[in-house]
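Question (not urgent): is this output format expected?
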Amino acid sequence: MRSICLILAAVMAYTVAAPSDGAPAATVPEGKRVPADEFWSDEPQLLITAVTLDPETRRLTINGQNFGGHRLPTVKLDSLFLSLSRSTDNMLVTDPLPQVLDVGTHLVTVVAGNDRTRFDVYNLIIGQPSAAVTRPAPVRQNQIQVLDSAGDVGWHTATAVGADGNPLVAYLDYTKRDLKFIQCRTPACGSASPRVLDSDGDQGWCNAVVVGADGLPRIAYFDNTLKDLKFARCRDPECRDFQPRSIDTEGQVGQHISLLLGSDGLPVISYYDKTRGDLKVAHCGDPDCAEVTLSIVDSVGNVGWYGSMAISAKGYPIISYFDVTRRDLKVAHCENTACSSATITVLDTGGVGLGTGIIVPGDGLPFIVYWDFFNDDLKLARCTNPECTKAQLRVIDSTGAVGSNAAIALGRDGNPIISYHDHTNSDLKIAYCEDPGCARVRISAPDTDGSVGWHISIAIGADGLPIVSYYDETNGNLKFLYCGNPACGGTEE
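Got this back:
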């Protein structure tokens, strides 16, 4: 690839960690998924037509179609795995339930034994005259849009949610070397008109965007003509009035950008100083960044690639980044809003840390997702203290070459969700954590059409569903994924 802020990697497969009690590693899907293109399976659709509970024997009888296969199906009642006393292609009978069911609605899930992409979910209602299934749980499919196809477009995407609840996307038009911007008209971005924000030279590399309490977008990016870090606060929600300024001009500065609003409500930008090989932070003294304090955070060796920033439990920036000299994953916990001092920790070593992403959930213990390029794996660090001086490391996806372009967001359910690239299959992949600690993961490939999934940015929409902007290398297009459920259509293993 040709991008300054881009790395290569990544393979389609999924890894699901088994729970500590030894139960099968499976979960309740969000609903029935029937692939439109038959890519996922040559098997017929699995379908549940009825579920009944015998009050005397406490056995469930599940009627349907295409339950058969070389392996027994997996059957769950809510989060409880059930064993089977009888299994045919059209009927499943469980062993007696180990407990009495509460009155209300319970989810019955059947996952095919021979093809785990086939499943169905139904509602079992207890406490009515007939304890029978009514209708399937509602199904929402992923939606994929091409947002811009005028030339080679869609590099260095940055995604946020506007004041109206609809997505915003900033990105590079590589053909014209312009910074472009889209304000979507719907949550799925079905209606959007690209707009050029900065065309003065070679603009729009390494973009980052955030929306302030005033509803106005802020955008930071790299000026590849002047080699400067640039910033602008839009004067209107659609960013029609865009007046950028250079806020660091000392050498070649402004790649590997991350942007957020600090605890004081003012912009904070982390970025790479290529001239000195340093990780730097710019703290704005006003909403327009007319006054700025620049701090060198780490200058030991060549450091600061692929930076990602969040606000720590102490209210200060915390930054994950790559140490080019040592080939390590590092994290800097700032001791003040301007990050003039910081505690720096090496979290993982030996060819790791490209393409980092960081979030801080409600418990204050950060998650860092990153690419282990030595082993071609997607990895996750779960910090064990708010400063992230220690962390538990785990591999999320390890089959083939996976994990580059990793980005992470915190779902409305409090669970992390990760987008990344599968380089072996050239696919966009999503890893959905099924619990707040990310011990169990569901993985899917929502877009497999050509070489897709570069320059990824992920956010959580106003409706609580993930949104992902990314680059289609095959067609040179900017694409957008609106997930139909929190897992983006992930299936079980």
